[in-house]
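This part of the workshop introduces the protein records we will be handling. A record pairs a protein's sequence with a compact description of its fold. Comparing a sequence with its tokens is the quickest way to learn the format. To make this concrete, we reproduce a full record directly below:
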Amino acid sequence: MTTPSGLAALANGAVLSPFTQLRKLLGSSPAGHQVPIDLTIGEPREPMPAFVPDKLAEAVASYGQYPPIRGTQALREAISTWSERRYGTAAAPDADSEILPINGSREGLFLAALSAAGRKSVSGRQAVLMCNPYYSAYVGGALAIDAEPVFLNATAESGFLPDLDELEHDKALLERTVAFYLCSPANPQGAVASREYIRRALDLARAYDFVLFFDECYSEIYSDVPPPGGLEVAAATPQRFDNLIVFNSLSKRSNLPGLRSGFCAGDRRFIEIFAELRNMVAPQVPGPTQFVSAAVWSDEAHVEANRAAYRAKYDVADRILAGKYGYQRPAGGFFLWLDVSKFGGSAQATVTLWQGAGVKVIPGAYLAQAGRNGINPGADYVRLALVRDAVTVGEALERLVVVLA
């Protein structure tokens, strides 16, 4: 797909979401099985914390008040304490000046581009860098500020992360860059950025004075070793959180995608600017949501249970997919990124799986764009979200193997 550039493309509906493209691809074609299995949307199906309904009921009276745009003190302190527990004391952002609650990470990732555009003047058109494949909010943010979205291919050859060696040599691009969206664990490949990689990306942000937007919404779902965090890496530098904003939410960590509760944290100067922007144009996080979120960030028992559930699904995938489709057990996140180049590529394989097995997946080509070399890094892949129970995941993967034999 060729995406028109600029704000007009975003405003006139020319930019289609991956799910809209998928609906157009499959049309009215029937599923090839009596019991279809949808593995397209990264909507967690594991249990949410049992105490959430009671906490929401406890705070229901706060619906009668305007909630604070910068979040309650209790919520900001709970997020700071969680960060300290997860990444160490030095990495704990200040609850008063370095944390901003948001309505899920998507809202923050999109709107933050506006503040990034305002903090740096460039010669020529501003550029926004993003990992490719990317989350749709990244390109939406770039187009909203009429910047050039620059797609940095994340391929098997580059460890499924953007090639920073290549980027570092393009000084002209870096000079007009206002933001760099980076995701770890990566969606959809599951790759985890090392501390050295994060530090290098942060060094580039500081050298060229752009903001590194580090999307960590899958940080708490991992197979073995906890992924390093942006705040953790930045805290070990003299500049601390300068030029860094991390984003996280309760959607994946706590199986609460409908709560729409997240936060951004880091560079206090950026947080101040962004808070004022949100105060003008964005909705506050509802009072009961803030109240329950503080409790959820303070609890780790449900997070451990969540990780155990995903490990069981990884084990199923290991058994069924070993040696097939370039499968690798993801280091983090809950997606599988399978090579279907031998089956006609991403779109054709998606149709084949739906019509032949009743398994619905997302074509990798719909999650990416042609990069700077003209190649779409998702063209040979499909993405599967391991959000169903282990038995259903196993059934879907067994059908996939039969149809793509």
The chain has a mean pLDDT of 96. The chain has two domains: 7-47+302-403, 62-299. The two ends are 29 Å apart (CA to CA). Residues 301-321 form the longest helix (21 residues).
